Amino acid sequence: MDEIEFSSTGSGWGPRSEVLAVGWGNSCETVRWLLPRGLLNSCPAGVASCPASSCPFPSPRSPRLTLLESVLLLGPRPTTGGMEFSELIRTGRAQAKLLRGPEAPPLRGTLCVTGHHLLLSPGPQGTSDLWLLLLRSVDSIEKRVSGDSGTITLRCKDLRVLQLDIEGVEATLDIARSIEALSSLESVITSFPFFYRPKGLRLGDAWHFHPPERYYKRVARETNAWRLSEVNEDFSLCLSYPRAVIVPRAVDDDALARCARFRQGGRFPVLSYHHAPSGTVLLRSSQPLTGPQKRRCAEDEELLRAVLAGARPGAPGFILDTRSAQAAKQARVTGGGTEAKAAYPGWKRLHRPLERGRPLQESFVRLVEACGDLEQSMDGWLSQLEACHWLAHVKEALSTACLAARGVEREEACVLVHGAEGTDSTLLVTSLAQLILDPLSRTMTGFQELVEREWIQAGHPFQLRCAHSAFSHACPKHEAPTFLLFLDCVWQLGRQFPLSLEFGEGLLLALFEHAYASPFGTFLCSSEKERCLCEVRTRTHSLWSGLNQPKVRRKLRNPLYVPNPLAIWPSVEPQSLRLWQGLFLRWIRPPEPSQVAWEKVWQRLASKEKTEGCEPTSKPQL
Amino acid sequence: MASAPTSKYNSHSLENESIKRTSRDGVNRDLSEAVPRLPGETRITDKEVIYICPFNGPIKGRVYITNYRLYLRSLETDSALILDVPLGVISRIEKMGGATSRGENSYGLDITCKDMRNLRFALKQEGHSRRDMFEILTRYAFPLAHSLPNIGILNEEKFNVDGWMVYNPVEEYRRQGLPNHHWRITFINKCYELCDTYPALLVVPYRASDDDLRRVATFRSRNRIPVLSWIHPENKTVIVRCSQPLVGMSGKRNKDDEKYLDVIRETNRQISKLTIYDARPNVNAVANKATGGGYESDDAYHNTELFFLDIHNIHVMRESLKKVKDIVYPNVEESHWLSSLESTHWLEHIKLVLTGAIQVADKVSSGKSSVLVHCSDGWDRTAQLTSLAMLMLDSFYRSIEGFEILVQKEWISFGHKFASRIGHGDKNHADADRSPIFLQFIDCVWQMSKQFPTAFEFNERFLITILDHLYSCRFGTFLYNCESAREKQKVTERTVSLWSLINSNKDKYKNPFYTKEINRVLYPVASMRHLELWVNYYIRWNPRIKQQQPNPVEQRYVELLALRDEYIQRLEELQLASSAKLSDPSTSPSGPSQMMPHVHTHF
Fold first, then answer.
1. d(Cα B145, Cα B168) in Å, to the nearest integer?
2. Rounded distance between C-alpha atoms, residue B407 and residue A440, angstroms
3. Distance between CA A437 and CA A320 in Å, rounded?
4. Torsions phi, psi of A101, nearest 5?
5. Which residues in chain B are classed under CATH 2.30.29.30?
6. Contacts of B523 (CB under 8 A, 6+ apart)
7. Surface of A (389-448) touching B: CB under 8 A
C-alpha cells in the first residue's frame, strides 16, 4: 500500500501527524501547528518522494499554504472504484469566517476541503492556529447565500454546531457540496482511519489487547466449566460473533452449530461474565427461532442445561427478555419467539421491555433539539426534558441491568439476556450489569476491555447505529444511540459513585465522539467479520492505543478513584438521575467553571503521583 | 428476583447508615448511656412507641425526650435505627386517630418538621401515654407559648473557639477599606433609635450628616435608610441596601431622600447614574403604594435608573417549598418527576434570585455603577441579593470565616427576621410570617458551589449544618429578629454561637478542591438547564437516594485535604528557602489583607 508507506515516511510528515494526533482530542479543536522551522521553505519530503508525485503546487505562494496543500494532497490520494476524492472536491479553498458558538472567538482565514478534513488556516497576520475538522463528523449541513457571500452551518455528530461565513456564492455552494459528498461516503476502506498515521503509535498495537481469549484466561482461572471455542473461526456460524467465544465445556462444536441455527443471526448463548463469588454466569444470545410452530432445539436446551450444571448445584436460571411478553409472543409470527417454559427446566423467564431502534433515536433527537433551543421560555425546560423520555430510557436501562446483576449476585442464579437480535439492548444490559458487579471492569483497562468485548466484538453494529447522530435530516434507518445510552448510564454510575470508577467523564466523551466519527479504526464496521474483510486491524490504528498514551490516559482518569471491591448498586429513582450536561450541553454551556476545576483537580493529583513515585508513601486502605 | 426493579439497590445497608448519620455533631456519645446529651440538656421522659417509618414500615422503639431533642432507638434486633431530632425542628404536632379508631398503628402522633420530613409515632391507647407525650413535646418544642427559656439559653457547651468573635463590623468594614474619603462609619444607631432593625454601626456617605440621615429615615419603610453593604476595592462603586420609599398613593416626595441618593451617586464619578434594583415584580411595587410604600420614580429621582427583578414575596416562596415537600416526602413523585418539580416553581424562584444577584454584581463590577437594592422592607429579598452579589464579587466571603461574616452581617445584623421566618419555639405553624427565605439563599449558594467546585472553601456539609441549626435552636446565632432584640436578650453572653461548633472542627467542613483566588468575580449560569434540585438536602431522608456511602467519599476528601496541606507546607518551605537565599526575610503573605487599601481612618 502506497499510502501507508507514503504517509509514514520520515520526519517530513511529522508535522501532519502532530496536528492530527492533537486534533482528535476532546476539547481541542484548534491545534497548534508544530512545525520545524526549516520545513517551511521547502515542499515537504513526503510529497516529493511519493510515488504519484504530481505535486500540483510546485511553487508555493506562502509557506503555510504549501503545508495546507500538502495535507490536501494526502487526503485525496487513494482511489475507490476508479473515483478519486478530488472529483468530489469542487473547490480547493475560499476565504471564510468560522463561528464556534457563543464562547469561542471567531476565526478568519483560508478554508480548504481535503479528502477527509475541513481546514481553516488563519491569514498571514493571524495567529498560528490551524483549525481542523474531520469531515466524517459532520452530521448535517445547511447552506444559505445572500449577496456575494454565503453561510454554511455544520452540525456535527458530537453535537457541536459550527457556522462558516464564506466569501463568494460559488465558493459557498462548491464547498457545501464537497462537504456533503465527502462526509457521507459509506466506504469503510477509504475512510480516514486507513490513512491516519499518528506519530508515536505503531500499527497493530493494542489490537491484540482485548479479544475474548484474554477474558477467557481470567474465566479459566476461576472455573473449569467453560471453554474457548473457535467454532466460529470462519464466521460461518454467526456473522456477528467474533472468531472465538466462551461456551460450556460440556457442549461440543457440532452442538453449537445446531444451536446457532436455532438462534436469530446464529447468536447462540455465550458467556458474557463469570461472577466468581457466586459461581454463576451472565450469558447473552439472540431470540430462539421458535416460530409459529413452536419449534424446539435439543442442543439449545442442552446448552442451557449445561450452564446450570456448571454453576453451583441447584442454581436457578433466569432468562431476561428485553422485550415485553406481548412483543416476544408476537415475534413468533416472524419466526422468532422466546424459550418455552417446558423445554428449559430450571429457567424462568422475565420480561423487561427496553426501547431501542427508532424510538430511542427519536428520543435522542428530541433531547438534542431541546438542549439547543436556547429561545425556549425558562418554565418549559423541565417538562420538555421529561417529554424527551431520554432519562426514562436511562432509568429503564439501569434498572434492567440491576435486575440482571441482582440475579447473579443476590439470587446466585445464571442469567441469560436477550431481546430479538441480541446486538443492542442485550449488550446494554450485560455490559452495565458487569460494571455494577465487577470491580475490574471499573478500572481504566477493564472498562476498555469491556467495551471491546461486550460491544465491538459482540457485534453491536456501530457502522449502522452511529451512521448519523441527532442532527441528520435523513430519515433514520438503522441509527440508534444505544451505545450513547450505555455511556450515559455509566456516567450516572460515576456520578453516584464518585470514587468507584477509575476513569472520568473524559473517557466517556471520547468514546462517544469516536463511536460516531474517528481517525481510529476501533469503531469501524458492524462486526468482526467485516473488520477482517477490511483488514481494519492491520491497516488502522486502535483507539485504545491512542487513549492509552500516557499523556492522554492521565487526563481520562478519575482523580478520586479508590478501588471498591463491592458491587455498586445505582439508585434509579428519577431524582437520582441527571441530564448528562457534560455531553448534551457541552457546546452550549460556557466550558469554564467545571472544566477548569477538573483541570485543577487533575493537576493536583498529578503532582501527588510524582511525589509518590519518588518517595513511596503508605496508601490508605479503604 | 421478579419484584419491581426499582426497589432498594442499597447493598451496603445504607439506610441504617444514613439515619445514624443524622446524629448531631459534637456530641459525646457514650454507648452505655441511652441518649446523647449536651451539657445543660436534661431528660424529661421516655416512652415505648412504634415509629412508623415511611420507608421501612413500623419499627418498635423507645423514644427519649429531653428539653433539646427527641431521640428514638429501635428495640428490634434487626434494626439499628436511631432518630435524633432537635425539638426546634418541630413545626407542628398533631394527634392522629381517636379512641374509636381501629386498625394497626392508627392511634398516635404526627409531627411535622421544618426540615422537609414528618415523623409518625403510634402509641398504645391505654394509660394516657399519647396525652403525656403530646403535652411534653408541645411544651418543650414551643417554649415561647409556655414562657420557658429557649434551649439555646440553657446550652452549656464549651468550644475552644468563640464564634461570637467571628464578626466584628469595624474590622469587616476596615477590610473593605472603610472608612475612606467618601464613606464614614456612624454610630447614630448606637441605641437603635434611628432604626430598631438595623445594626448599631452603619456606613453612610461622608457628605450626609446625621441629621440628614434622620430625615431620610422618615421616608423609608421602617426607617431602613440606604446604607453601604460593600464597596468595590478598585473602582469604588458600592452596593447600598435599604427599604422601599414611602411614596404612597399620592406620590409623595422627599427632598432629603432624593438628595441623599444623589450624594451616594456622587461617590462614584465613573457613571452619571445610580442604579436602583427593586427586587419585586413591577406590579407588586405599584401595589405597595396602596399601603404607603412604592418605588423611586423617574421624575423625583433624576439621576437614577430603576430595574425590577421580579422576585416574588415570602408567601409565594413558602407555598413553593410546600409543593416541593409534597413531591419529595415521604415518597418521591416518580412518574412525572421533572414536570412535578417544574410545577413547584422552586427552581424558577432560585433562578430569579440568582439572576437578580448576577445583575447587581455585574453592574458594580463591569458596569462600574453604584447600586441601591431594596424590596419592601429590605430584610428578605434585599438580603438575598446583596449577600449573593457580595459572594460573587468578593472571594473573601467564599472562605469559611468569610461566609460566616457574610451571614452575620447581611442577614443577622441587618435584621432578617429569623425568629418570625422560622418560627423559633413558636407553635403557630400557620403563621403567614414564616418563609424559607434563608434556605433559598443557602440553596443559591449551593448552586454556585456546584458550578464553581473550586471557588468555595466550604463543602455541602457546611451548608447543611447551617440549615440544621437554623432550626435546632441549640445555638444563639439565628435566634431573634434583629440586633437590638439580641442585645436586649444578651444572646452573645447567654448562648453559644454556631460558628464555635464549626470553627472548632473546620476540617470537616472544608472543600478539598478549594483554590484561593483573589478578586475573581463568579458569574454562575442562572439558566434552568444548569440549576438542579438539591437532592442531598431536600430528599436526604429518603434512603433510596443515598448513593455511595458517604464515609469513603468524606474520607477521600480528608486525604486530599491532608495532601493539600502537605503541599502548601512544602511550598512554604521552598519559599522560605529561596527567600533566605535572597536574604530577604520579609516574604509578604498573600491573603485577605491584600484587599485592604491603605487609607487613614477617622477613628
1. 34
2. 47
3. 17
4. 90, 175
5. 43-148
6. B358, B361, B362, B392
7. 391, 399-400, 402-403, 406-407, 410-411, 413
Return the residue in A379, A496, A560, A571 with the most chain B beta carbons within 10 A, the one to mutate for interface testing. A571
Question: In chain B, positions 518-557, which contact chain A (CB-CB < 8 Å)?
Answer: 525, 527-530, 532-533, 535, 539, 542, 544-548, 552-553, 555-556
Long-range contacts, B53-57 (Cβ 8 Å, 24+): B53/B81, B54/B118, B54/B120, B54/B329, B54/B330, B54/B331, B55/B15, B55/B330, B55/B542, B55/B543, B55/B544, B56/B15, B56/B81, B56/B543
Q: What is the 3-state secondary structure (H, E, C) of A117-184?
A: EEEEEECCCCCCEEEEEEHHHEEEEEEEEECCEEEEEEEECCCCEEEEEEECHHHHHHHHHHHHHHHC
Contact A411 B328 (CB under 8 A): no
Task: Confirm or reject contact between A622 and chain B (CB < 8 A).
Answer: yes
Restricting to A residues 343-362, those with a Cβ less than 8 Å away from any Cβ of B are: 348, 350, 352
Shortest CA distance from B348: residue in chain A: A379
> Cell numbers of A123, please?
491569514
**Cell triple for A34:** 508544530
| Overall fold of domain B43-148 | PH-domain like (2.30.29)
Task: Give the model's confidence band at A86: pLDDT under 50 very low, under 70 low, under 90 confident, else very high.
Answer: low
Cα separation, B468 vs B116, whole angstroms: 11
Helix axes of A381-388 and A390-409: crossing angle, nearest 10 degrees: 50
A402 residue type, one letter: C
Residue B198 neighbours by CB distance under 10 Å: 27
pLDDT digits (tens, 9 = 90+) for A120-145: 887 666 555 678 888 889 999 999 98
In Å, what is the CA distance from B366 to each residue of A6, A296, A530, B271, B389? 55, 76, 59, 11, 13
The structure's pTM equals 0.84
φ/ψ of residue A164, rounded to 5: -115, 120
What residue in B sits closest to A372 (Cα-Cα)? B529
Q: What integer pLDDT is reported at residue A459 of this predicted model?
A: 93
Question: What is the per-residue pLDDT for A191?
Answer: 87
Interface test with A, best of B329, B452, B520, B547 (most A CBs within 10 A): B547
Pairs of residues, one from chain A and one from chain B, whose beta carbons lie less than 8 Å apart: 140
In this model, does residue A22 exceed pLDDT 70? no
Whether ipTM exceeds 0.85: no
Query: Which pLDDT score, from 0 to 100, does residue B576 have?
Result: 81
Domain boundaries, chain A: 85-185, 212-587
- Antiparallel, parallel or unpaired: β A317-321 and A414-418: parallel
Q: Which of A382, A570, A589 sits opposite B338 (nearest CB)?
A: A382
From its phi and psi, is residue B310 left (phi > 0), alpha (psi between -120 and 50) or beta? left
Indicate the range of A39-53, A65-79, B91-105, B207-221 predicted with least confidence: A39-53
Say whether B225 counts as a known binding-site residue.
no
Counting every residue, how long is chain B? 603
**What pLDDT does residue A592 have?**
54
Are A594 and B539 a contacting pair at CB < 8 A? no
Does an H or E element contain A84, and which? strand A83-84
Q: CATH classification of A85-185, choosing from 3.40.1360.10, 2.30.29.30, 2.102.10.10, 3.40.30.10?
A: 2.30.29.30
At residue A83, the 3 state secondary structure works out as strand
Which parts of chain B register pLDDT below 50? 1-32, 584-603
pLDDT of residue B266: 92
Distance from CA of B139 to the nearest CA of A (A): 37
For the cut 50, the answer to whether the pLDDT of residue A1 exceeds it is: no
Give the gap in angstroms from C-alpha B587 to the nearest C-alpha of chain A: 24
pLDDT tens digit sequence for A594-604: 566 666 666 66
